[in-house]
Amino acid sequence: MSIALHVNVDHVATLRQARGTAYPDPIEAALAAERAGAEGITVHLREDRRHIQDRDVRVLREVVRGVMNLEMAATEPMLRVALATRPHHVTLVPERREERTTEGGLDVVGQRAGLVDIVKSLQSAQIKVSLFVAPDRAQLEASRALGVEQIELHTGEYAEAFGHHAAALAALADGARFALSLGLRVAAGHGLTVANVGHVAALAEVVELNIGHALIADAVIVGIDAAVRAMRGAIAHGRRGR
Ligand code: PXP
């Protein structure tokens, strides 16, 4: 099965917000990423609005041709944004204000009660729901019980361990197999780079990758087009080599 690349353009907005200018524009970056072959665009509207702004989400929803995936915390205010903008997918992520990035997976087991209504409201609006979780069987079972369409496996531990990653990769492989056996669509992301993406792309169950920071960092040097093409090349290489 083929694998979709969703480019996360949050950090184009990080650069813009650093100076409060109108540039660089994450919308322009998203369109360039799609022209280079990305199947989808991902943004994380954080509660503190440190990078992506509400207007970015609204405009992206209008102009993105492929899949638009909105990452957000499972809260009422964010639910209102999602219902107003209606992205194709919503990925529910844990969010702590002091963190630099999304540090762990969602605790679906512990937070089931708070997630049920939000998942139902999104699904009633025909928005597909994905949960960002660690490759942990209990979390995957709880995700299945909530009735979501997809889970996104948190690849952060694997990425950090890269070079000594056998255990972390085995956990991802087990999580991907188990999730698919439960009937869940399997995405993955966080911390992926041209160097480390191959092993994740080689997992047959994974059909979508969400990649942001390293790809945008590469784009600063070589441009979005070349950065997306290089990432696609690394993904295809990993997929073929499995
Ligand atoms: N997937 C999810 C659910 C995320 O929260 C993030 C970070 O916003 C990513 C993927 C992308 O991670 P990175 O920016 O490290 O590629």
Describe what you observe in this structure.
The chain is of the alpha/beta class and 242 residues long. It has one domain: Alpha-Beta Barrel (TIM Barrel), CATH 3.20.20.70. It is 48% helix and 17% strand. An eight-stranded parallel beta barrel has the order 1-2-3-4-5-6-7-8, surrounded by seven helices. Helix 10 crosses helix 11. Pyridoxine-5'-phosphate (PXP) binds next to strand 8 and helix 10.
Spatial arrangement of strands, main beta sheet: 1-2-3-4-5-6-7-8
DSSP summary: helix tally? 11
What pattern of helices and strands is seen along the backbone? EHHEHEHEHEHEHHEHEHH
Bound heterogens, unique: pyridoxine-5'-phosphate
The CATH architecture category equals Alpha-Beta Barrel
What attributes characterize this protein structure?
TIM Barrel, binds pyridoxine-5'-phosphate
At a glance:
By secondary structure, the chain is α/β, with parallel strands linked by helices. It has one domain: Alpha-Beta Barrel (TIM Barrel), CATH 3.20.20.70. It has eleven helices and eight strands.
Task: Write the topology of this structure.
Layout: E1 4-8, H1 10-19, H2 26-35, E2 40-44, H3 54-63, E3 67-72, H4 76-85, E4 89-92, H5 112-124, E5 128-133, H6 137-146, E6 150-154, H7 156-161, H8 166-181, E7 185-189, H9 197-201, E8 206-211, H10 213-222, H11 224-240
Parallel strand pairs: 1-2, 1-8, 2-3, 3-4, 4-5, 5-6, 6-7, 7-8
Helix pairs in contact: 2-3, 10-11
Bound molecules: pyridoxine-5'-phosphate.
Pyridoxine-5'-phosphate binds at residues 8, 10, 44, 71, 91, 93, 101-102, 132, 152, 189-192, 210-214.
